Amino acid sequence: MKGFFEHLDHSRLMEFLSIRIAAPKISRLVVKFLKAGVMEEGGFFPSSEGAPQGGIISPLLANIYLRALSDENYNYYKTCEILNLNEETK
Could you state, in order of their start, the residue ranges of all structural domains in the chain? Predict the structure, then answer.
């Protein structure tokens, strides 16, 4: 989990978010939040991955991302389990 917030994949997150939220306005706001970048020592640094730490919506986005990955892993596990059962019955 180390570095999770710094390396959050924006495109995957938006894919997962579109499953749960159909409102385009919300999606646009989330994209703006993710692409906002960072101001350090008077310079602007755009962000192409990750979620701003300390951002008010970052924990929510992380939970959505982790839930979607958990669902994918569960579905993969169940599919493998079914295939193994089918192989054993032959």
Answer: 5-88
